[in-house]
Design brief:
Blueprint: E1 3-5, E2 12-17, E3 23-28, E4 32-37, E5 43-48, E6 55-59, E7 62-67, E8 70-75, E9 82-87, E10 93-99, E11 102-107, E12 112-117, E13 124-130, E14 137-143, E15 148-153, E16 158-162, E17 168-172, E18 179-185, E19 188-193, E20 197-203, E21 209-216, E22 221-228, E23 234-240, E24 244-249, E25 255-260, E26 265-270, E27 275-280, E28 285-289
Antiparallel strand pairs: 1-28, 2-3, 3-4, 4-5, 6-7, 7-8, 8-9, 10-11, 11-12, 12-13, 14-15, 15-16, 16-17, 18-19, 19-20, 20-21, 22-23, 23-24, 24-25, 26-27, 27-28
Length: 294
């Protein structure tokens, strides 16, 4: 562990490192975004948005913040950090994802809203929403290799959407509780749920995903993130309701290590040069780094 950033008053739900600056952005259910200096570890600025934050991501010089009934957008490359408000969501925005010039937002009423823009100046125009879900969308994942958007929902399903037509091409059933997090690459998809299980899906002939394996945890799964360790091995970081982040080798799914937190870790994000970050319900953002001897 390199540092603990402790200023938020409620759970941390978003951590994003801007590639356009040396700033780390953290969003919390306390309604604030904190801007941290990556060199000193000090909080440079607090932006009070006035409403509980549901999600926060960075893409290039853009910061996207999901709030009830709106997505706030900051362009860090423009003088004065130009801000835009994207109206249209109904209820909390729990998940955000970017693909090329498209922004997706998963909302509490089950919609996935889609904006198209240039990501240059005044960017975004609403495209028709994706409406095939009955309950809140809580996670989104994009796999450009198979041209798919995956969405996990409180209705316990995963939807597979075609990125070109934005039509649903498959519904994955099998989980018995909320699908909280998704991880994909090539023809493979991992789905994680509060039902304590991870399901491994592979695309067969015709591109349809089929379940091929399952892994069970002792508690509900909250968040997963894939990255490489210091030796270049693909690793899955899996946060559970037991206040731990479990580290698994992707190839074998053998547990390598655990990161113990004071409370539930709801956000995991990668940084440069072996850095990664966790945000938890104890209001703490932890800065960590892979070690060569691990």
């Amino acid at each position: 562990m390199l540092a603990r950033l402790e200023r938020h008053k409620k759970s941390v739900v978003g951590v994003a490192l801007s590639l356009a600056s040396d700033k780390l952005y953290t969003g919390s259910r306390d309604g604030t975004v904190r801007v941290w200096d990556c060199n000193s570890g000090k909080c440079d600025r607090v932006i009070n948005l006035g409403f509980e934050i549901g999600s926060l991501i960075c893409e290039g010089s853009w910061v996207f913040i999901g709030l009830p009934n709106v997505v706030r957008v900051w362009n860090l490359s423009l003088e004065g950090n130009k801000e835009f408000c994207l109206d249209g969501p109904i209820g909390q925005v729990y998940a955000l994802a970017v693909y090329k010039d498209l922004l997706f937002a998963g909302t509490a009423n089950g919609d996935i809203l889609l904006w198209e823009g240039s990501f240059e100046a005044n960017p975004f125009a609403m495209v028709a929403p994706l409406r095939e879900l009955k309950k809140a969308v809580v996670c989104l994942n994009i796999c450009s290799g198979v041209n798919s958007l995956y969405s996990g929902s409180m209705d316990n399903t995963v939807k597979v959407w075609d990125l070109e037509t934005v039509q649903c091409k498959q519904t994955l059933n099998g989980h018995k509780d909320v699908v909280m997090s998704l991880l994909s690459w090539d023809q493979c998809l991992l789905t994680y749920s509060l039902d304590h299980t991870m399901k491994f899906w592979i695309a067969r002939e015709g591109g349809k995903l089929e379940p091929v394996d399952m892994h069970e945890e002792k508690s509900g799964i909250l968040k997963v993130f894939g990255m490489q360790d210091a030796k270049g091995r693909p690793i899955v970081l899996c946060s559970c309701n037991d206040n731990c982040v479990h580290l698994y080798e992707l190839d074998s799914f053998n547990e390598m290590d655990r990161i113990f937190a004071e409370n539930k870790v709801r956000e995991i994000q990668r940084g440069p040069n072996g850095l990664f970050f966790t945000g938890d319900a104890a209001r703490v953002v932890t800065v960590l780094m892979w070690q060569q001897n691990k």
